[in-house]
Design brief:
This protein is mainly α. It contains 108 helices and no strands. Helix 36 crosses helix 38.
Amino acid sequence: MGDDSEWMKLPIDQRCEHKVWKARLNGYEEALKLFQRIEDEKSPEWSKYLGLIKKFVTDSNAVAQLKGLEAAVAYVENAHVAGKTTGDVVSGVVSKVFNQPKARAKELGMDICLMYIEIEKADMVQEELVKGLDNKNPKIVVACIETIRKALCEFGSKIVTLKPIVKILPKLFESREKAIRDEAKLLAVETYKWIRDAIRPPLQNINSVQLKELEEEWVKLPATAPKQTRFLRSQQDLKAKFEMQQAAGGDDVDGDDDDEGCAPQVDPYELLEAVEVLSKLPKDFYEKIEAKKWQERKEALEAVEALAKNPKLENGDYGDLVRALKKVIGKDANVMLVTLAAKCLAGLAAGLRKKFGTYAGHVVPTILEKFKEKKPQVVQALQEAIDAVFLTTTLQNLSEDILAVMDNKNPSIKQQASLFLARSFCHCTPSSLPKSLLKPFCAAFLKQVNDSAPEVRDAAFEALGTAMKVLGEKAVNPFLTDLDKLKLDKIKECADKIELASGKKGGGAEKEKPAPKAQPPPEAPTKPSAPPKKASVAKPAGPPKKGKPVAAVNGKGKKAVESKDMVEAELSAEVCEEMSAAVLPASCMQLLDSANWKERLASMEEFQKAVEQMDKNEMPCQALVRMLAKKPGWKETNFQVMQMKLHIVGLIAQKGTFSKTSAFTVLDGLVDKVGDIKCGGKAKEALTAIGEACSLPWTAEQVVSMAFAQKNPKNQAEALNWLANAMKEFGFAGINVKAFISNVKTALAATNPAVRTAAIALLGVMYLYMGAPLRMFFEDEKPALLAQIDAEFEKMQGQSPPAPFRGNSKKGIEDDREEAEEQDDEGGQDVMDLLPRTDISDKITSEMVSKIGDKNWKTRKEGLEELAAVISEAKFIQPNVGELPMALKGRLNDSNKILVLQTLTILQQIATAMGPALKQHVKNLGIPVITVLGDSKSNVRAAALTTLNAWVEQTGMKEWLEGEDLSEELKKENPFLRQEVLAWLAEKLPTLRSVSSDLMICVPNLYACLEDRNGDVRKKAQDALPTFMMHLGYEKMLKATGKLKPASKDQVVSMLEKARAVMPAKPAAPAKAASSKTPACPPAAKPLSAPSKSQSVSEDSGVFEPKSDTKKTKPGGTAAKGKNTSQELNGSVDKDDSFSKPNRLSKGKSSKQVLGGKKAPAKTSAKDEDDKSGPIFSIIPNGKEQRIKEEKGLKVLKWNFMTPRDEYVEQLKNQMSTCVARWLQDELFHFDFQRHVKAIGAMIEHLEEERDATISCLDLILKWFTLRFFDTNTSVLMKALEYLKLLFSMLSRENYHLNEFEASSFIPYLIVKVGESKDVVRKDVRAILTMLCKVYPASKVFTFLMDGTKSKNSKQRAECLEELGCLIESYGMNVCQPTPAKSLKEIAVHIGDRDTSVRNAALNTVVTVYNVCGDQVFKLIGNLSEKDMSMLEERIKRSAKKTPAAPARQPEERVQRAPPGNPNASMTRKPAPDEAPNKLNQARAQNALAEQSSPAITKEFQLDLDMIENDHTRVSELPDLVQHKLDELLEPVMIPEPKIRAVSPHFDDLRNSTASTINFVISQVASGDINTSIQALAQIDEVLRQKDKAEAMSGHIDQFLIATFMQLRLIYNTHMADDRLDKKEIFKLYSCIIGNMLSLFSMESLAREASMGVLKDLMHGLITLMLDARVEDIEDGQQLIRSVNLLVVRVLEKSDQTNILSALLVLLQDSLISAAGSPKFSELVMKCLWRMIRFLPETIGSINLDRILLDVHNFMKVFPKEKLKQLKSDVPHRTLKTLLHTLCRLTGAKILDHLSMIENKNESELESHLRRVVKHSSSLSGFKSDRGTEKGTIRPDEKMSKAKVSDILSEIFKKIGSKENTKEGLTELYEYKQRYSDADLEPFLRNTSQFFQSYVERGLRIIESEREGKSRSQTSNPVIPPRGTDNVSDSSSVSLNSNGEELKPAVYYERLKILRQRHGLENNTKQQQQEEDDRPPLTSLLSKPSVASSTDMLHSKLSHLKESREQYHQEQSHSHSPSRSSTPATNLDDLKKRLERIKSNRQ
């Protein structure tokens, strides 16, 4: 039980992975309890188990596994992070649980899978289960099928995707295992429940018996659709609804909706796999189809027919094939072939569906023409073809072609066209069959119902009946007013018989239903919705017969009825007289034609009275007006009588039923008088009355034509003036522009100016209604006249037409306008239809088309120019343009961009010329224009966009959004194309009221764009997101994210949330003619209704004021009261009262006072106030540490960006959610800036009382403020800075010190703001920077400021330089990092800056340095140009006159400093340059004084700083630091590092602060001053060599190594290049560095602290040093390089093995990438890698293989196999291969479990390579297995052939015999003997000399003793021998064995060398130890001897090295055969002399 008690003490998570199964079982039980106990689903406890859950389910012990499965179910159910484990756990369940014999295990496995589905991971679960179906174990397959079935049964087909299931079912039915077949059958039955017959096609080919069984099962199933019984977490509302239904005990509650919701109709087509057929066409198809023999043509067609039978075809370019088939249908005389071709077309259309739409326009006219054939089988095939084609496009696109054949002479064609329309209407809905489309069809049908051929009449009746069935009677009746009752009844009878595609029966009562049924979304206004509403008020009767019930139908119907009723027969004069006599007094009748004008006048008065008293129905209008025309009639000479006459005509027209016949009688007379001065007014009134009675369009046409038939210019002018006025009064509806446009042109050409003026004024009024297209009619006019017309149009620009108020058909006009709007046609589009259009098809000759497609670009250009000329000549063209579209499409991707631009210009021309009919060319010409948006040239893209917009202007957006074309464009991974298309959609979508459902197809590609590599694409996609959402809805788009990868899904969902908040409202339906009535009404209503709807979503998240209020209420200035005054900078703060509510409430004001009596909102805000009463930040123990750990471990994004991306904001939001009050978080992350202001206000209020909590969340708070720095709103920025000043003041008082993570994620962004253009902002930022130095070391702030000087913003550079000056002035030179020299060189560069303020700032800073350290500054700043140097000297001279020697702290004295950086920016007054009181520093000093006056800070802090600074100045002036005592040197430590802890500045305390001291000394290591650096290194060496003190370095290793390699870099780049420096000094510094490193890396505990990045840089530095040719030139340079060699070996051995291996891999990768890198460098890195590989057997246990494999993966990603092989040397490839082989050999197949850190394994060949190696390792294991297991015996299956043995040994002996590879050969021979102890070497040694044999034996003995010695001597120091053939840095390439990987490569040679050296130096340890013990104590750290000792130590090591080398060479010279020369003696003597010289120097 001892063991038990051991593991019982372990934490639960460790027990869960214990090797003892009982421990694991116990762990799982405890974990289960824990999981059930944790209430918070976001508890950090869950994360601990993330990596363990897979082990829970795959436990090897069955008992433990059961418990593990239970725990896993609990985990998945409760943990919010469980989703991350889906793939691993489900694959584990499939492979390790489903094969278990215990039913309980399988049951739990299924539960886990279903639970994952419940937490929204259905796709991943399904993917793993489908993979499981390929498993060889039938148990697993059965369980997978069962799980899928269960998931489908519970969650339904919306969540479980059926396509992959249906695809795999046939394969399952073929299985040999009965259990699998049975389970597959159950799954097929379950699937059938959900999708019914859609499952049949994929299962057609299974065994007939099985199919029969299935059919039987399917028949038994209930007809009702199944319902979802288990719900996702996001479907809780559905769940609640379902539970209510269950509770109610009935499934019928809201049953229909549920049925629709639960069982979506699945299209069988969607479940099929697309087949690629184009490549399968016979190669000679196109020759055969043109063959003369019909049999050959038939063969070709049969081949196509067979291919076209595939139910789903792959998309492709079917243009040529379709053209070939079209030619057969149109021109082939053999009807059998026509039938075949028609079948092929039908097959293609059915297989391609919407993708065939492009070709529909080409084939439909041909099919319609071919209907002249009488043979039934031909007609039937053509019908099938045209029906299939119709389903791929829209009726709108085909309408032109169909209307063209509706009046064909051939009755068959007319009949079939009508029947085709009847069938097509069945598939239509009211929205896809608008009135604008129906109108021309009905006109054609009305002609056909009177046709002589009965079959044509019947077809027309059927078509009209179908239209009536689809749209309802009321929509169709207005077009049928001219039909008699008999025909109408026939149409109704047809309507009753028709069965629609949607399965709707019956006519009459149900005729209103199609509208709501077809379009369920309430927002989308259905086309016929408005008229029926009006209709329902009147009688629901059938066709109207008289004038009265006309109100029941829409306006067009009314006009039609009037035109019928009001045309009456012309009466004779006698009849007129009789009728008039009956209603007029006799005296009136007699005096009508009296010669006396007075009598005539009296008669007229009586006439008028009689008319006024007459009843409308009794008034014989025609008779009365004829009486008025009786002699003298309209020739009346007396103006009074004439006026009365005209007045009476108007009265009759108004009061009676006035017909056009009556109007004809009087119009001539009225027009004749219209220009009369006295009677003109009355004539116009009469004309207006007639216009009201007979409709203005007709009246206007008559009046204008009559006026221009006369020659009287006055009449002409006045007629036009009347018309202009009438248009305003009646509106423009129905006006036939064509009818009088020629007369207007005549008027414009008239000589009389009045007529011209009237014509231009009329055009102005027409322009109000028609817009720009009107000008097209007058393009040919003279320029002067055109200029007048343009001037008139200019006047009308921006005006809206007045609302009509005249005419009986007012309602009709309104309806017309509404209808026009509903069709998405703006007013001008009707006008476009009026333009006379030319048919240019005959001008587009085949020559022109072939020219456009010519190979020569000049010919192509000519062709395009000819085409442009044709179009511009024709002006307006008909849509029939023959083969032109295909030709132009080819030119859009022309390689010559000039031609592409020319084509785009032509397409713009075509758009204008063709008008709305352009719609039919959208698919074949419009979509290719979109493709051009992907062009790399910006001018081509701009032209394409202009063209696109020109097209859309004519066509509307509907056609563009239908089908998959747009989504195909977005799918292309072209960043230009994507960003242009998305920007275009974002602009167009918000203007549409409804869109095609096909827009949904684009969504997956939109999501892909959100994650595009290109930032612009991502931005455009985010902009487009809300516009997509406004049409598709949030729910649909959220559901579409289901198919994304988990990581992508989370990102996209968060973006959807944001888009939801800013989603625009749909444009409201246009108000009916209300533009004159209260025009302010609609705009006010719109924002009120629409946004509030979109806002309601976000109300839950704390948004309590709807957006609409911002527009609605503007209470004035009071709203911003009590806020920070800076907010007033932005007027929008005042917009809404409610923004300031929380602020006021928190300050105790009552809600009533704020809201002024609005009760409801007052309640909300009161409720909010309650919520906000608690603390705003909560302290989470170790929360900050955990976040830092996560950021260190790269588990979260590092806070480092140029502009914050959404993922950063989302990450911060998630991190803050745990420690920030909910309401505050909502405010902090609201999209409205005013909420941010409010949140900061709350944070200011809580700052003091929640100090601790604020500090615990400080990292998050600072990160949030960095986001605010990127806002453009000044009021937020000012508020943020105000808070930060208070925050840093509080931190300073609390003695808090920022940690590195807080600083690095905040300070760089703060420094960016120092370059802000506003003074007030800069001032605050500077104040914050000053405070920052109290909570963070100034030396580190210095580094950030140095980075800031590299900015492109000159203000920022200047300010940063000023700040640097202040830091140096305040803290002295030690603040300069990394070294004063380096930083000053960078600062001095800015003296030559272009910007004056930057130059001044740089000069000021250098002058400050001069004040601190005197003339040394010139040495530090390096070489400057003469100009810059003279400026600097001048400035120094000026400052010298004023500045005292020591820098003073007092602001008064600071005034004396050099001029400020930018005098303009300082204050309002501009000081003289010399006066230069540095305002920045003044402000700082005052600020600092203000801060210090705070009682929390003692005054002595300030004093000490003064003292220290002065002391430091002295130090800087005396470079010989050695003379100072330790205390004096350490005194300035307080300056750069006052933040380590709250230290008192007294030095007694300081001495205790070890960490502080070490930090300071380390900072000195990287000093630019060699002496300073050597002193620091000596001190550190002292610490490192005293074991009891060495531990103090723990935690500082990385810091120390960074300082070291920075110093190495400094020496390499600066000191070595500086001829003025003594090279001995450099050598001394190098010696100290290497001595220190050797000491450090001899302590394993410290060495292991070095991180990967630091080791990489260190190795880089050391290898660079080894390769530095300049070092060899220094005296003793060779010695130095050897010691570096030794150090490298030490680093490789003692560092953390994972880190060093990782560092070497990254270093190798970098060195191979950089072209500049020397091959030698890479070679040395690889040598280090070989060494690491050799040690792998010992170190493998301590290596994190996951990390190493990740690095190898990244390496292989950058250098795939092919790329590696292309390198000059093949060694990198072999190195990598050897590493992987060694790892595989050591770990076996387990290596494949270590790929967990690699996200996408397919990105490199790593996984496949490892699998190959693992697979082959068994066959090679005999040769590669460990020596220990073999014991020299070879198993029979592993014995090698003798030939192979002989090859290997002969290869080894060759190496021993070669001069270069002797050592390597001996080592390989030793290894070989160890492995195969029975190997016989006799045959190989027999023929060699005795000397050689003894040499080999001795060599093997030495190796053996070294190997044994290695295990004993743990303390011995590994040393690399002197440079020569056996050196790590040797230039000889790594030698590999010719047998590839079978023998270990040349690394054995290296091992031999190292072991020899060790053997020679084995006694060093004691001697060294003795030396170390004799070292002086710490107090004399700075004395000279300490320096000597550190170098002595190095030299003692070097001397040992030398001795061992001599010993080695002596041995070698004896044993070498005479044939080989030994190392030259001269070289050795030279080395001896050098060493002697070093020794004597040191003594």
